[in-house]
């Protein structure tokens, strides 16, 4: 299984306020927006994702995979505990931690329907 860089993302409690901050205050280029907002920061995909209201900010390093079930199984064979796979509509998401407890994400984009 080949893991590829997908993005870095932050959970935010107020998507509108966060878009304003990253776009208007920091000058990040907003490239698309639907359920999440995506910015291009010097060629790196940075996303802000709605989280729980009043939640604390946190970041994830996200790896794109072609097939979530296989990626999850491969990591588990290597002794890595991986969360249940969540269907987010636009793709599938799962989480795991490095030896220091830093959380990483796996993301499989939804296949285009014919």
3D structure, described in words:
With 114 residues, this protein is α+β, with helices and mostly antiparallel strands. The chain has one domain (4-109): 2,3-Dihydroxybiphenyl 1,2-Dioxygenase, domain 1, CATH 3.10.180. 18% of the residues lie in helices and 43% in strands. The chain has 2 helices and 8 strands. It has helices at residues 15-25, 68-77; strands at 4-12, 29-33, 37-41, 44-50, 58-64, 86-87, 91-97, 103-109. The protein has an 8-stranded mixed β-sheet with strand order 2-3-4-1-5-8-7-6. A hairpin with a 3-residue loop joins strand 2 and strand 3. The model has no long low-confidence stretch (mean pLDDT 88).
Q: Could you say which overall geometry the principal axes of the C-alpha atoms support? A: globular
What's the number of helices? 2
Mean of residue pLDDT values: 88
Share in helix = 10-25%
Topology overview:
Layout: E1 4-12, H1 15-25, E2 29-33, E3 37-41, E4 44-50, E5 58-64, H2 68-77, E6 86-87, E7 91-97, E8 103-109
Parallel strand pairs: 1-4, 5-8
Antiparallel strand pairs: 1-5, 2-3, 3-4, 6-7, 7-8
Labels describing this entry:
8-stranded mixed sheet; globular; alpha+beta; 8 strands; 2,3-Dihydroxybiphenyl 1,2-Dioxygenase, domain 1
